[in-house]
Fold this protein.
Amino acid sequence: MGKSLENFTPVSALSGGALIGLSVSLLLLFNGRMAGISGIMNGMFSAPKKEEIWRGLFLMGLILGAFIFQLLTNNSLQLRLGYPILLIILGGFLVGFGTRMGNGCTSGHGICGIATFSLRSIAATITFMLSGMITVFILKHLLGVA
Amino acid sequence: MIINLIALLAGIIFGLGLALSQMIDPNKVLNFLDVTGDWDPSLAFVMIGALAVTILSFHFILKRSAPLLDSGFHVTKQVIINRPLLLGAGLFGIGWGMTGYCPGPAVASLGLFSVEGIVMVIAIYAGFFSQRWIANK
């Protein structure tokens, strides 16, 4: 318990969340788009050509944003080392498959959808939160992996 | 043109938000999902921060007849809670719990030159294409 309280970072979490909210609001106000990341990623290779440019730029911005933060704060973010790569491959596949099947991820359903009080998005968010928690419980506490 | 610049700017702000909130750190995410273990509730505050802004701003933005740079809003009006929605969200949650990455942080972690992030993004696309292939059969 002590460890998690030491790592509890509500202020940076709230302000980071507010920045994400600002980003999503900008994209809706100016471009009329909901910033669901899985949808934007998927559209990179399925949308018409002129639709691909803003998507590519948004994703490039995402990468740049993380890079700039790392520059400004002098490598405050540590990369995880030694995590089983098989879990990443399998889990990544499920993230891709599931977000397309369910039409959204943490940003699309969890933020944009809930912000419009969509019951569909609220149901999706509760579902992926629960299945994520159950998965961590099984992997960590029952199987002892990762 | 301006549409593209807004998209780039929105992406940068989103990436900064993911980094500042530490949502980009997969261990931080897994500690948030680990409710029966050494639970770190921080990431709930990311959602609270994001929703505090969006619930208010969306309320006003969606009252407009159109966004500033387009003729209409590209907002899907799907309302049905069906099997694909719940099954898809369930599978996504399993992948999220296995890796600690949802799509945004997976892409943003490329800015940290994370090998794990590269593998994650490729695997996500493999999932996208497989889902589309199965759905089109």
